[in-house]
Amino acid sequence: MVADPTLAELTECGVVAVMRGLEPETLIETGEALREGGVTTIEVTADSPGAIDGIDALADHFEGTEVHVGAGTVIDEETANAALRAGSEFVVSPSLHEAVIETCNRYGVASFPGIMTPTEAVSAIEAGASAVKVFPAKSVGPAHVGALKGPLGQLDIVPTGGVGPSNAQEYIEAGASAVGAGGSLIDEDAIAAGDFEVITENAEELVAAVEEGRDSE
């Protein structure tokens, strides 16, 4: 049995790709395009059509590779369990749900609950979260990440929502461990047209921005 990835492995590439609302038959090609562009952590949101089956297919396809597949938009224990049975290696939530964190801890899987305030961040860590997702990041910007890291330097933060190549470097410089990206990375029109090279190019651009931020720290 392959051990579940550590937080360091999940955030190594610096980007969590958020797949939301994609047609199930496009998931693997999209995942391969992301991988080619250097993004190796992929989240399929639970509110997507056929999400659990999609996670299962992606996890099976990428088993034994550097690509890690997880579930997003998980807000209850039932969905967390279904995602874990499908092969999720991490679980992301838009808000703080201790039952989801507890479920992940029970099976040794990383959890990234959504938070916005220091109180929520501390509650998440006390509940056993691996990292926290500042969401929606576009409402507060990179400065908020830096403000949270001030008193909570041990916090691993993954800002998500409105993050792209134009601001990813700022988030990393502010102290983020990685960034989550959906719309700036997953071009649905390109996918519908079968032009997966666009996804690879977007991934390369975003990974480069993250690397710039890490190099300047």
From TrEMBL:
Keyword Lyase: yes
One Pfam family from the record: Aldolase
GO MF assignments: lyase activity
The keyword Repressor is annotated on this UniProt entry: no
Keywords: Carbohydrate metabolism, Lyase
Similarity-based family: Belongs to the KHG/KDPG aldolase family.
UniProt-recorded name of the protein: 4-Hydroxy-2-oxoglutarate aldolase / 2-dehydro-3-deoxyphosphogluconate aldolase
Subunit and partners: Homotrimer.
Listed pathway(s): Carbohydrate acid metabolism
